[in-house]
Amino acid sequence: MATSNLRRRFIAALLASFIVPLKAWAARWNQQAFEAPDVAAAKQALAMHDVYKDQDHGHAQIEIVAPEFAENGAVVQVEIMSRIANTTAIALFAPKNPVPLIANFSFANGGKPFLITRVKLAESQTLEVVVQADGKYYQAERYIAVSEGGCG
């Protein structure tokens, strides 16, 4: 009986240790942005205002590496790197997807603003990347042609 009680306490403590991180994750989740019907509404939910085109004396500070043509829109690899100092977040938008906000990545102080991810694209479209740095927002774009949509 003592072993059974000890086992229950251990399991309860273990489950409790997972609940705290889940609550912290849920606090950062912006449901309104991820359920927005279009890019403008998603940007508004993320409080993105005055988004500037990415240019620094003619040199792009946001690098997007993605295929010009993707045979299958269900799996499109995208690499993004921001050379903008003090980058704290990178968001990806696919305007023609059913849910335009694909992802929103946050970076801790000193974190290198580089990511590789795979996205689904419903059809050929311009992938939009918005970088947050020092409270400002910078946007870069990359058109990707898709032969078979991946959101169906």
Any chance you could write out the topology, listing elements then pairs?
Blueprint (H helix, E strand, L loop, with lengths): L1 H27 L2 H4 L4 H7 L5 E3 L8 E4 L3 E4 L3 E7 L4 E7 L7 E6 L7 E6 L5 E9 L2 E13 L4
Parallel strand pairs: 1-9, 3-9
Antiparallel strand pairs: 2-4, 4-7, 5-6, 5-8, 8-9
Any overview of this molecule?
The protein has helices spanning about 1-30, 30-35, 40-45; strands at about 50-55, 60-65, 70, 75-80, 85-95, 100-105, 115-120, 125-135, 135-150. It has about 150 residues and is an alpha+beta fold. A hairpin with a 7-residue loop joins strand 5 (about 85-95) and strand 6 (about 100-105). It is globular. Residues about 20-25 have low confidence and may be disordered.
CATH level 3 topology: Immunoglobulin-like
Low-pLDDT runs: 22-27
| Helical amount | 25-40%
Percentage beta strand: 35-45%
* Overall pLDDT: 83
Structurally, how many domains make up the residues?
Answer: 1
In CATH, the homologous superfamily goes by the name: SoxY domain
Q: Could you tell me the number of beta strands? A: 9
Overall 3D form = globular
Q: In CATH, what is the class?
A: Mainly Beta
**What is the succession of H and E elements?**
HHHEEEEEEEEE
CATH 2nd-level architecture: Sandwich
Cα gyration radius (Å) = 20 Å
Largest sheet: 6 strands, mixed
Q: Give the termini distance in whole angstroms.
A: 53 Å
Instruction: Tell me the number of helical segments per DSSP (H or I, 4 or more residues long).
Output: 3
Structural class: alpha+beta
